[in-house]
Amino acid sequence: MKKIFTLICALTAVFTTAQAQDVVFTYGGETLQEGAEVTVQAEDWTDMGMGYIADSNTPKVLELKNTGAGSAMVSVTVKVIAGEYADIMWCGITTQCQKMASQSETRSTTLAAGATARLNIDTDFEEGEYGVRSVLVTATANGESTSMTFHMENKNPESGNAKTYTDNLVVTINGMSTPAQQSDIKVVMAEDGATMDLSLNNFSLLLEGNVMAVGNILLEDVPLIESDNYEVFRTNQVINITAGDDPEQTWLGPMLGDVPIVMVGKINDGKLFCAIDIDMRKNLQQVICVSFSSDINGGEDYTESVVSYQNDAVVESTAGGVNVEMLNDGTMLLSLKDYSLYVEEEGLLPLGNIMLSRVRYTTNGKITEFSSEEDVVFKNGTPNDTGWFGSVLGFVPTKVSGKLDGDKFYCTIEMATAEMLGANLKIVVGAADNVTNISSVAIVNNNVSVYRPDGTLVHSGAWQSEILKMLPKGLYIVNGKKIIK
Q: Are the CB atoms for 151 and 132 separated by under 8 Å?
């Protein structure tokens, strides 16, 4: 099957007497010097359902312009200088659109002063065929000539700074995840390596048992931040999702209008990881979470205790530790992994990873302090495609503040979950005095399990000094001993 790239240039020709300076080419309103070259990339054109056709609203046209006042006979010669002449279609001057019959063709007409003649040149490429086809265009009036070269190029999307990554993709909606499926994401790096364009094409999702074709998601000019063996990226954009490749398919994306997107991830030559949150609350009353590949390991892991509170009361919870990655732009990535929270009538409910990507930090001596306020969507924990329900909460306003020192970490995470969970959530990771005065930590700060007298577990794996500060007054069993607060 062919992909047709129609490359249309408009030649406006106005001719007079034999003054050479009166006849010039212009492109986009700018005068071209004699012998100038113009290149049109196939990727610049839009798919209109009939192959790839030039956008009729493109602001740039190629014109042959005369500043004189008299009419004249003009001849225009198109000579193929790269590629086969049979691949070039020439429309205009004195004939209908037809392929060139030889390497060089000349057509003539008489034009009055101020008159124009449109000239269209197009070509097509077979699927997977790449290269450049070029023509030399020469206009002659009253014995004087001017020339320019027009290049039509179809670049290989896998060459240069473009790369396609293939890995598992999981879509999560309302806490339900699709099975992992092999998918492609294309990345095009900018020449300076500071930004990239990322595209997920022909994206579809399963909604209430039906496959819904969404379309192409393109995120442009995503900034890159260097890290150890990869680069980190994050972006918040409002985009329009375009139709996918199948013209017979009904694509939802173009009907949605402006769609907010939040993306964070990591990339190197061998691997791409990204989490894309598609905010469709306006149209579908939900957030669609897309996870591509698994995280690229980096940063430092901390296994501090985790204590959760709702309405100042301790609530049973578990977590798989914290990962912190400090970047060279004064920010850090902070993730609380595999977090679960006790929810009445549901039991211990797996929510997932709390990933904060815009945490600012400052370092004073050995202590690094950090804080952030951002809207967070729970990401799936491990394994990626089963049993995580946090995305149901949507975008949750979240505050984090804390500090770290070497292998000791402390922070509080406050999440505005009252609307969905009946109360706001506060998570305390580690103990503040572990960071500010590590040498004074006594044996009382061993990890302990705390129970009510009836045997109900309040929390496990918590620092005794921290848990006793936060518990409401009452009688508790700590490491087999009764403690009254």
A: yes
Distance CA 481, CA 440 (A): 23
Q: Assess contact for 85 and 123: CB atoms under 8 A.
A: no
* Same domain for 420 and 323: yes
Query: Which of 133, 154, 175 delimits the end of a domain?
Result: 154
Distances (CA, A) of 121 to 5, 57, 94, 319: 11, 17, 14, 63
pLDDT in tens, 55-112: 323 446 777 776 667 776 777 788 877 777 777 877 766 667 778 888 898 888 776 7
Q: Which residue range is the domain that position 283 belongs to?
A: 162-292
Tell whether the model's pLDDT for residue 231 goes beyond 90: yes
Backbone angles phi, psi at 311, to 5 degrees: 55, 40
Is the pTM above the cut of 0.85?
A: no
| 131 closest CA partner among 191, 80, 88, 82 | 82
User: CB neighbours of 187 closer than 8 A, spacing ≥ 6?
Assistant: 162, 163, 164, 165, 196, 197, 198, 199, 267, 272
- What's the rounded Cα separation, in Å, for the pair 464 and 446? 7
428 touches 309 (CB < 8 A): yes
Helix/strand/coil percent split, the chain, to 5: 10, 60, 35
The answer on 480 and 358 residing in a single domain is yes
**Contact partners, residue 364, CB within 8 Å, separation at least 6:** none
Lowest mean pLDDT among 177-191, 289-303, 377-391: 377-391
- In this predicted structure, the answer to whether residue 53 has a pLDDT above a threshold of 50 is no
Where a domain ends, among 292, 324, 359?
292
Q: Lay out the sheet containing 30-31: strands in order across.
A: 30-31, 23-27, 62-66
Question: Which among 202, 223, 186 is positioned nearest to 43, based on CA atoms?
Answer: 186
Residues 309 and 442 in one domain: yes
In this prediction, residue 291 carries a pLDDT of 92
Q: Identify whether residues 455 and 473 lie together within a single domain.
A: yes
Q: Give residue-wise pLDDT tens across range 383-439.
A: 766 678 888 898 999 999 999 988 889 999 999 999 888 899 999 998 876 665 433
Task: For residue 282, give the 3-state DSSP assignment.
Answer: helix
Cα distance between residue 113 and residue 135, in whole Å: 27
Give the pLDDT confidence score for residue 160 in this predicted structure.
61
